[in-house]
Structure formats: C-alpha cells, structure tokens
Amino acid sequence: MKQFIRIGVDLAKNYFQVHAVANEGGPAVTRKLKRSKMHEFFAQIEPCLIGMEACGSAHYWARELETMGHEVLLMPPAYTKPYVKRGKNDAVDAEAICEAASRPGMRFVPIKSADQQATLMLHKTRELLVKQQTMSVNALRSHLSEFGIVVAKGIGRVDELLELAESDTTLPEIAKAAVKILAQHLEGLDKSIDDLEKQIGRVHAHSEMSRLLDQVPGVGKIIASVISASVPDPSVFKSGRDFAAWLGLTPRQNSSGGKQTLGGITKQGNRYVRKSLVLGATSLLRVVGKRKGALRDWVVALLAKKPARLVTVALANKLARIVWAMMKTGERFRAELFAKA
Question: pLDDT tens digits for 297-334?
C-alpha cells in the first residue's frame, strides 16, 4: 500500500483534486479523481493525515475516510486561502490545503455526525419556510393595500386581512382568486413549519446536551437543539469569548501600536445561531423587571447607560458564554442568576 504523511483534498461536485506528500520537502503526488473513485483510491493508502476545507460534502467525506482509518482535519476555507501561491485552480487549492493542514496554529472544524447534520437540515428548512411565509404575507398585504384593504401590522392579523378581502364586494373576482391562492400557500407553510418544529422538539427531547441548554433563559428548544448540533466539540474553543467570537458577537478590532480600537460586532460566523440568540435576548429584556439575580442586575445596570438594542446584543454575547460553559462542564444553569421575583 502507498504511504504518505499528509494529503490535501480539494472537494468539488464530480471531480476531486488530491495533493499528497510522502515526506517533508519531497516531491508531491497529484491526482484528479472522479467521485466514484474516491473510496478506491484511499483504500489503497496507509492511514495518514488528510486535510480538507469545511465546505459542501466535507463532513460526509470526513466520516467516510475516518472509517478507513485516516485522520481527517477540516479547515475553514478562509484559513487556507493565505497558502495559495499564485492563481487559482483545483491543483493549487489542493496544495494549499495540504500545506495549511500541517500548520500548528491552524484552526480546525469538528466533524459533525450524520444525525447532527440531519438536525441542522431541519433548522435550515424551517428557516427557509419562515422566510417564504414572511414574503407571502408581505405580498398579500401590498397587493390588497392597492385596493384600500389594510390592517394593523403583525402576522397574526393575516386572518383578519383575508376576511376583509373575502367580504369586500368591490374587490374584483380575479384579485380574490389570487388572494385565495396566497391563503392556501400560507396555510400549507403554517402546517409545514409546525411539522418541522415537532420534529425539532423530538430531537431536542432525545438530546441530553440540548435539554441541558434549554435551562438557560432565552434559550428554548429551537436554539438549544441548533447549538448542540452545530458544536459537536465545545473544547475547540479556548473560552466562552472564543465561542462568542465564532458567532460574530464580539466587537471588531482595528488596533495597532498598542492602541485598542473596537467597533461594532463582526457578524462573522454562524448567522442562524447568532440571530436566534439575539432574538432570545430580546425576549429577556421584556421580562427583566420581573426577575432578580446577578444576571438581571447586570442587564439593568447596562440599560441605565446604553440603548436597549446594544444591550440586547451584549446579552446575547453573555448567553453565548454561559452556553459554552455549560457545554464544556456539563453544569446546570444556576437558576438564582435570573430567578422570578
């Protein structure tokens, strides 16, 4: 069997580029493989280190190669880019990936299981349907406003809007037909979203980590399940701040010469989890007056000198740190931090 110390693989849809080195400083072996030949090629190689970018199908191939005995490292694509020498093609990218995998300071992405990816698929499908629901409601409102049919804001007012459209004798029948189609579409979306949330609830009930995170104020089953599926190994983050930075909830730095300059949050990282935590933090601000404890006192003190929107993001950062600490230690949430008054 062939022996290599390290292999870089540039993943694609149908053809994969391989860059393998047998020893440091020695000549490299390059191959362009069809998808169907991947298993055959790596089955003929002694177990070695394989580096790949954390892109589409990367977690699947990482699991497949690990079953063959190989050690697989996934890296964010942005972190492999500095190792591209010149130009861009599959061979150059595979060489850069191979080089990046050998760097001691490189950061790696934990490999997700098939179940974790399936859970995230539920969440992303739900997010898509909620977006389509919002688009459909906005379309319905804008179309009917052209005929003078208007109701107050809020998705809960859609039934009232439909009733007004149905009872309006001046609304043309053609317009009523279009309204009926949009109403049927919204009804189907509502049912699909409810079904997905039930599926997420079942996944949440069977996950010990998800049930643990559900104890955190502002973190329900939706947020808890997506975090537990998105972070297979919390130890890859050195601290809660690193986890919050991964979510894009820490200030952007532009520091130089010993002078620290901080801006707004970076908004880098997992957008879905960040948005969910900010929404959870927003809900906490509404009930903060009915709570007591250290977390409540911290929020009230911050509200006294900062705008509510800024406090919401700061609280989301705080929740992210609490979540990381609980995932790392397995400790339950200390209820006295945000208890009912």
Answer: 999 999 999 999 999 999 999 999 999 999 999 999 99
Number of domains in the chain: 3
Verify that 130 and 44 share a domain, yes or no: no
Last residue of a domain, one of 183, 206, 229: 206
Residues 225 and 335 in one domain: yes
Closest CA to 18 of 37, 2, 32, 6: 32
User: CA 159 to CA 161: how far, in whole Å?
Assistant: 5
pTM over 0.85: yes
32, part of any domain: yes
Distance, in Å, from the CA atom of 70 to the CA atom of 85, rounded to the nearest integer, reads 27
Q: Which two three-digit tokens encode residue 76?
A: 């964010």
Q: Which CATH number fits the domain that encloses residue 24? A: 3.30.420.10
d(CA 323, CA 240): 8
Provide the residue type at 154 as one letter: G
**Do 129 and 83 share a domain, yes or no?**
no
d(CA 178, CA 201) in angstroms, rounded, equals: 35
Q: Are residues 126 and 156 in the same domain?
A: yes
Other Cβ atoms less than 10 A from the Cβ of 205: the count is 12
Q: Which helix (H) or strand (E) holds 265?
A: strand 262-265
Model pLDDT for residues 68-84, shown as the tens digit of each residue: 999 999 999 999 999 99
Determine contact, residues 328/235, Cβ cutoff 8 Å: yes
Among 41, 73, 100, residue at a domain's last position: 100
Distance CA 26, CA 38 (A): 24
Determine phi and psi for 339, rounding to 5 degrees: -85, 160
Dist. CA 197–CA 217, nearest whole Å: 20
Sign of the Cα pseudo-torsion (13, 36, 112, 241, in order): negative
Residue located via tokens 């820490």: 250
Domain containing 193 equals 114-206
* Same domain flag for 236 and 136: no
Q: What is the mean pLDDT of the chain?
A: 93
Separation CA 194–CA 69 (nearest Å): 41
Distance, CA of 262 to chain centre:
25
Residue 106 lies inside a defined structural domain of this protein: no
